[in-house]
Design goal:
The chain is 29% helix and 0% strand. The chain has 55 residues and is mainly alpha-helical. The mean pLDDT is 84.
Length: 55
Amino acid sequence: METQGIFDEFVVWGHETLPAADDTFVKGVEEWLQFADAMHTTPTSGTNGKESAAA
């Protein structure tokens, strides 16, 4: 990885407010985190790698 730049500080506007429930960026990041977690989790012997329909 190559360093592209260095910052001494940065400003975040609207940090004190929560994003909207339908924010597509937040939803995408949450879905990506769930996907990454599923990829890096070893399934237990009881689940055979599949979630139950009741979940």
